[in-house]
Specification:
three-stranded antiparallel β-sheet; single chain; seven-stranded antiparallel β-sheet; 9 helices; alpha+beta; globular; Protein Transport Mog1p, Chain A; 324 residues; 35% helix
Length: 324
C-alpha cells in the first residue's frame, strides 16, 4: 500500500510540476487547511457503541468495546464526500462499523458498510451441496464474458483472483460469510471484498468490508466479533417466516455468493479511500484529487485540471510521529 501511495503521489507531483497555469484557490488546500478540515470532520463524527436500533426497526446491532458505529447520515457523508462515490451508492446505507482505533481517513484498517436487502426469505436448502471451487470457476468465466464490454465502454477489467475466505454458512445462526480477492486493472492493489449476509424473514442484512488485501489479517482477527453484532428484532428473524404471507426470494445461498463481483460500493470507494491519505506525500484539492482517481478507476477522461503539489516538513513530521 505504501508503494501504491508513493507512486500515486509521485505521479501527481509530476503532473503538478508540468503545470504552467496558476491554480484557482478553490481547488487547492494547503497543509494547514487540509489538517484543519480533517480535524473538523473527526470532531463532528459521533460514534456509538452498545445496543443500536437500525433504521426500519428490523435489525439491532450490539457494538462491543473495540468497535464503533457511525449512523446512516454520517456514513453517507463518508461514502460520498470523503470517498468520492456517487450519491446513489449511499441511498440505502444503514451505517458503518469501524474498529475503535480507526476512522474514515485511516489507510491501514477496514470498515463494514451495512445495508438491508429486502429480497425476501432466502431458502438455504442448497448450502451443504455447493462446491465452491466449481462456483469460483463459474464466476471467473462470467467475468471473462463481461470484461470485454467493460473495456469497450472505457473501464478497466475486473479479475477475481480467488477466495480470500472460502464461503461458510452457519446454519444454526443463519449467517453466510465469505471473502474474495479481486484485481482491478493492472496497477492497483488487490482488493479484499469481505461479505457477510445475515438471513431474516423479509430479506438479508448485508455487511461489506471496505479494505485491501493488506487488511485481511485484521478482518480475520475481528470477524467472529463482527458476525455476532447483528440480530433481527422480534417478528423479523428467519424463524418467524410465514409461508402464507411472506415473500420468498429468488436467490438461494449459492446465488448470494455468486452475485455480482462488485458490490454497490466497489473499487471506486476503495481507490478514493486510500487516495485520501496521499496528503502524506502531496496535498491537493479534493475536486482535483477525485478527478484524477476517477480517471484512474474508470479509464475514462476526467475534466482537465491543473495540479499544484504542496509538501512540507510539518506534514512529514506529523506523519512520522503518528507512525511511532
Amino acid at each position: 500500500m505504501r508503494k501504491f501511495l508513493f507512486m500515486a503521489g509521485a505521479l501527481l507531483l509530476t503532473l503538478g510540476l508540468k503545470a504552467a497555469t496558476p491554480v484557482d484557490d478553490s481547488t487547492v488546500m494547503d497543509e494547514k487547511q487540509y489538517l484543519s478540515y480533517v480535524d473538523s470532520v473527526k470532531k463532528s463524527e459521533k460514534y456509538e457503541t452498545g445496543l443500536i436500533h437500525l433504521p426500519g426497526g428490523r435489525i439491532e446491532m450490539n457494538v462491543p468495546a473495540g468497535f464503533k458505529f457511525l449512523n446512516a447520515e454520517q456514513s453517507k457523508y463518508v461514502l460520498t464526500t470523503l470517498w468520492g462515490n456517487p450519491a446513489t451508492a449511499s441511498d440505502d446505507i444503514l451505517g458503518m462499523i469501524f474498529p475503535a482505533h480507526s476512522d474514515p481517513f485511516d489507510s491501514s484498517s477496514y470498515a463494514f458498510i451495512i445495508r438491508f436487502d429486502s429480497i425476501g426469505y432466502v431458502k438455504d436448502y442448497d448450502a451443504a451441496k455447493i462446491n465452491y471451487d466449481d462456483l469460483l470457476k463459474d464466476m471467473q468465466k462470467d467475468e471473462d464474458a463481461e470484461n470485454p464490454e467493460r473495456i469497450k465502454n472505457g473501464y478497466q477489467p475486473i479479475h477475481m483472483i480467488g477466495w480470500a475466505q472460502t464461503p461458510f454458512y452457519d446454519k444454526e445462526n443463519k449467517i453466510l460469510h465469505w471473502a474474495k480477492e479481486l484485481k482491478f486493472g493492472e496497477d492497483t492493489p488487490h482488493t479484499l471484498n469481505y461479505e457477510i449476509r445475515v438471513l431474516g424473514r423479509h430479506g438479508v442484512l448485508d455487511m461489506n468490508a471496505v479494505c485491501t488485501m493488506n487488511e485481511l489479517p485484521l478482518v480475520e482477527a475481528d470477524i467472529n466479533k463482527v458476525l455476532a453484532m447483528a440480530r433481527f428484532t422480534k417478528g423479523n428473524s428467519y424463524a418467524d417466516f410465514d409461508p402464507k404471507i411472506d415473500k420468498i426470494a429468488a436467490w438461494t445461498i449459492g446465488g448470494l455468493v455468486a452475485g455480482k463481483v462488485l458490490a454497490k460500493v466497489g473499487f471506486f470507494a476503495i481507490i478514493v479511500k486510500y487516495a485520501a491519505v496521499c496528503w502524506k506525500f502531496i496535498l491537493l484539492g479534493f475536486a482535483a484529487l477525485a478527478g484524477f482517481f476517477r480517471k484512474l478507476f474508470t479509464g475514462k477522461k476526467a475534466k482537465e485540471a491543473v495540479y499544484e503539489p504542496v509538501v512540507t516538513e510539518e506534514l512529514e513530521k506529523r506523519e512520522e510521529e503518528k507512525e511511532e
